[in-house]
Amino acid sequence: MTEYAGLDIGSRSIKLVVRRGGAVASSRRLPTTFDPLGQLEKLFAHGVPERLAVTGYGRELARERYPQARALTEIKAHALGAGSLFPQAATLLDIGGQDTKAVALLPGGKVGRFEMNDRCAAGTGKFLEYTATVFGLSVADFGRLALTGNDAPLISSMCTVFAETEATTLMARGVSPANIALGLHRAVVARTMAMLGRVGLTAPLVFVGGVARNPCIVRLLADALGQEPLLPAEPDLTGALGAALWLETTAA
Amino acid sequence: MSDAAHTAMWERLDLDIEAHDALLAVLGKFYGDIYLAQEGRLKGAEYLDFVLSEVHGLRIKELQDAKAAGKKIVGTFCVFVPEELTLAAGAVQVGLCAGAKAGTELAETLVPRNTCDLIKSFIGFKLARICPYTESCDLIVGETTCDGKKKAYEAFGEHVPMHVMEVPQCKAPCDRTLFRAELVRYKEALEQLTGQTITAEALAEATKVVNAKRRALQRLAALRAAEPAPISGRDALLVNQISFYDDPVRFTAKINELCDEIEARITKGQGVAPAKTPRLLLAGCPMAVPNWKLPYLIESSGAVIVGEESCIGARNTRDCTDETPGNLDAMLDALCDRYMKIDCACFTPNTERLDNIAAMARDLKADGVIHYGLLFCQPYAHEAMKVGKAMDAAGIPYLSIETDYGMEDAGQLKTRVEAFVETLA
Known about the structure:
Chain A has 252 residues and is of the alpha/beta class. Chain A has nine helices and nine strands. Chain A has two domains: 1-86 and 234-252, Nucleotidyltransferase, domain 5 (2-Layer Sandwich), CATH 3.30.420.40; 90-231, ATPase, nucleotide binding domain (Nucleotidyltransferase, domain 5, 2-Layer Sandwich), CATH 3.30.420. Chain A has helices spanning 36-43, 59-65, 74-85, 125-134, 139-147, 160-172, 177-198, 215-225, 238-251, and strands spanning 3-9, 13-20, 23-31, 52-55, 70-71, 91-95, 100-106, 110-116, 205-208. In chain A, a hairpin with a 3-residue loop joins strand 7 and strand 8 (110-116). The radius of gyration of chain A is 19 Å and the shape is globular. With 425 residues, chain B is α/β, with parallel strands linked by helices. Chain B has a domain at 205-320 and 344-424: Rossmann fold. In chain B, the strands form two sheets. In chain B, strands 2-1-3-4 form a four-stranded parallel beta sheet, sandwiched between helices. In chain B, strands 6-5-7-8 form a four-stranded parallel beta sheet, sandwiched between helices. Chain B: InterPro entries: FldB/FldC_alpha/beta (IPR010327), YjiM-like (IPR047678). Chain B: It comes from Solidesulfovibrio aerotolerans. Chain B: Pfam families: HGD-D. Chain B: This is 2-hydroxyacyl-CoA dehydratase.
């Protein structure tokens, strides 16, 4: 049976989804590291898929290595992936390792208006990862800690470096780590809501990308939206899934 | 010209030879990647390649020869400076280098850090002594089209001979009166500089030369409506960039030749991109040489640019000056009328620009509009939002991009542009 492989090379992790017979047959994840090509060699140690679509920041790199591969942007890939899982979704939010994307979805997982942060990684997974290290915590523990906060200070800076300064100042004033953590998560959601507003936020919203695994961000986003966002079981895989689906539909 | 002759000339201009060599090396590499690597280019592009290869060589030699013959060189940064008057005074007008990161640290000693890259660039080029055009100038003309430039000219004026023209910010009769007076003041500054009186005959002749250049550029712009696109957006942008510093008569002849070739190509149904390639109109801030970053990203993302709604593009070439008035006063009125039509974001309101963009998109059969805002350019940042609303109303897909001369955001920009192009395909 024909296999369609979707590969999403993000700034933090490489995701592979293989579809066969109209369903997902397998999926894998690897950290991107500073040697993504080396990681791809490991991923494809038992052979490179014949039908391969690549998306994410490393798509050009992968296409140089695997000339048979076809490339698409992660905006289109996530929209297709999320649209297949939640056909009713009208807006897509993807918070990944180094960027945030807000996309108005048209029927069939097509991309309408979209917004994306530019060069600065403010408000992305990187922001949370970096601020977590200030607390000496993993990102997962940082999210859990933030959930226990009850009186968050307003963190006004979205610059990772300035936010650290603000957090340090707040610590010195005796604000509890849980509340500072909550404040930092709120700052991310506030920025995200502004971006969603610019694409004309329409419910329901589907939330994908690695940061959709952060329980505090999900809760704060639900509060801001006034309803629970749609969450895939594996929110970091929608890009790879969308790439595989795109190959499947365009190859037919 | 030999390399040694080039270097001797640059030394006479007191350039920092080592830094200038480094700049030319980067420029050459950049040009090779972005321009020479293109497929299916027009034969007439040889002129562009030659001009660019001698941008700091033969053209500078021509300027030096003109100076030796007693002519004055006037440098500009803006389409509001009337070339008609400059030429009528027997002077040469050149647009100055402002499209690359150069001497940034030095520039930041004269202007605040959160100043746009265009301003930092022309100041950096001067302070780092790497622009032979700036060093050749007998007068540099600034204009008050934004607060950044207006205040920067105060600091810049301590390093170069400056004349600043006041450009009004509204288009009421009193504003026309102001700009008319500014034209006279510029005319007098030129007369003082050159020792020549600007006569009606000289102005009429100069107006013909400048209008001929505009008509050649209008002709090129109109030909780009053809499908498939007969010339790349990069080459068309370069034509517009070169229009600011090559000799106007030679330039006009060469561009008309290029247009002849394009017409032949259109008759044969040939183009630079396959039929059905998404066609984009690029709107917004000017792209001075060698600011080719965004056009290159767009055209390597599966799209072709069919028009530039920009000062280095339609804003500079849309209108000609009336050639019919027979006396100097009426000619100055005609100049005032022509320049006050410019739809620069410095004006309030500036609604004609929105209509012009929609009309260009329609005439050039563009599938979408990309707005380019230079980081820290407040007038165009505001208008990027207005243009977005106007394009929504007109049903034209729209992407707004804000960036600067750095390359750090190239990856993210490419993703945004590609995703936009994907929605059009």
